[in-house]
Design a protein that fits this description.
- There is one protein chain.
- By secondary structure, the chain is mainly β.
- It is 4% helix and 39% strand.
- The chain contains three helices and 20 strands.
- The protein has helices at residues 4-7, 89-92, 95-98, and strands spanning 15-20, 23-29, 32-35, 47-50, 70-72, 75-79, 86-88, 101-106, 109-115, 118-121, 125-127, 132-136, 140-142, 178-186, 194-199, 202-208, 214-219, 238-243, 246-251, 262-270.
- A seven-stranded mixed beta sheet has the order 16-15-18-19-20-14-17, with no helix packed on it.
- 31% of the residues are buried.
Length: 278
C-alpha cells in the first residue's frame, strides 16, 4: 500500500504534511489526508513535515529495484536514491550522464560539479533514505550504478555536517526552501573557523572551513513559524567568520538569494569596520 496514509501511519499526528516536486499532501485530521500527491512513488524525493523529531517505520514494503530508471528533464528534479547504502556522486552516475549534471541539493547539503569529474561540497554522495534535487542541463534517462550496502559505507554519511556540531547560539532550522553558496576563498580564514550566513541578525546557515571550497547553506522563509525571519527571494545574505567568540564581517560579490540555487562566490574579504561614533 503506497498511500501516504499507510506509509505515514506510524507517525500519527506528529506529521502534518508531505511535499514533493509539484505536489503535496496534508493531514487535516488523524488518518485523513488531502492533496494532489497522496501516494509515494519510488523515484520521487519527499519533504516530510514533522512537529517533533521521530523515526519513520515502514512495514510490509518491497525494496525498490536499484536499477530503476529515472526519466529526468532539463532543470531541477526531486528524486530518490534506490539503494540502502551510499556511493560517491561521481561513482554513482553513469559516465555518459555525469557530464549533464550541474549539481545536487539535499537536506542541508549540496554538491557542485565545477569541472568535468570534479565535485565539491559537503554532501558529494548518494545515500539511501535521502532525497535529492538533481540539476541537469539536458533531459536524460538515468539508472544509478549500484550503491554500496556494506557497513563501512555508512562512514560516508559522516561527511555531511550535523547541525548539532554548530556552536551554541548559532544554530538554525532546516527549511524546505534553501540555497547554497560555494565559497572558493576567504581572506585570513583559518582551518576550524565557522562561516555563518545571516539574514539581518538571523543565522540561516553554517559550515566549518576545512581549507577547500565549501557550500554554505542559506535557509529561506517557507512560511512556517520556525523559518520566520529567514531570507526571501531577491534578498542578499551576509556572511561572517566565527572564530571562538569573535564574529568577523565579510564582504564580496554575493548573488541575490533564490530557492534551490547553487551559487559560486570566488572570494570574500574582511569588511573594514566603520566607527560607531566619532
Amino acid at each position: 500500500d503506497a498511500s501516504i496514509e499507510s506509509i505515514m501511519s506510524s507517525l500519527g499526528e506528529n506529521v502534518s504534511g508531505v511535499i514533493t516536486e509539484g505536489g503535496a499532501c496534508s493531514q487535516i485530521s488523524l488518518g485523513v489526508w488531502v492533496g494532489s500527491q497522496c501516494s509515494i512513488e519510488p523515484t520521487r524525493g519527499y519533504w516530510i513535515i514533522l512537529e517533533s523529531n521521530a523515526v519513520l517505520s515502514v512495514f510490509d514494503a518491497v525494496p525498490t529495484d536499484s536499477g530503476i530508471t529515472y526519466n529526468l528533464y532539463s532543470g531541477a528534479n526531486l528524486i530518490s536514491f534506490p539503494s540502502d547504502g551510499s556511493i560517491g556522486v561521481s561513482e554513482g552516475l553513469p559516465d555518459d550522464i555525469e557530464g549533464f549534471v550541474v549539481g545536487l541539493i539535499t537536506e542541508g547539503g549540496a554538491c557542485s560539479q565545477i569541472e568535468p569529474g570534479t565535485w565539491v561540497g559537503s554532501h558529494c554522495y548518494f545515500h539511501g533514505t535521502h532525497g535529492y534535487w538533481i540539476f541537469l542541463d539536458e533531459a536524460v534517462s538515468l539508472s544509478f550504478i549500484n550503491g554500496c550496502d556494506e557497513p563501512e559505507c555508512a562512514s560516508l554519511s559522516r561527511n555531511s555536517q550535523n547541525l548539532s556540531t554548530i556552536p551554541d547560539g548559532y544554530d538554525y532550522r532546516q527549511s524546505t526552501t534553501q540555497a547554497f553558496y560555494f565559497i572558493e576563498s576567504i581572506e585570513n580564514i583559518e582551518i576550524g573557523d565557522w562561516i555563518l550566513s545571516f539574514n539581518g541578525d538571523e543565522v540561516i546557515g553554517a559550515r566549518q572551513w576545512q581549507g577547500t571550497i565549501i557550500d554554505v547553506p542559506a535557509m529561506g522563509d517557507d512560511g512556517s513559524d520556525y523559518t520566520k525571519g529567514y531570507i526571501d527571494t531577491g534578498e542578499v545574505p551576509s556572511f561572517k567568520i566565527l572564530r571562538g567568540d569573535e564574529l568577523i564581517n565579510l564582504e564580496g560579490d554575493i548573488p541575490t538569494w533564490e530557492n534551490n540555487q547553487l551559487y559560486i562566490v570566488s572570494s570574500l574579504t574582511e569588511a573594514i569596520p566603520l566607527p560607531e561614533s566619532f
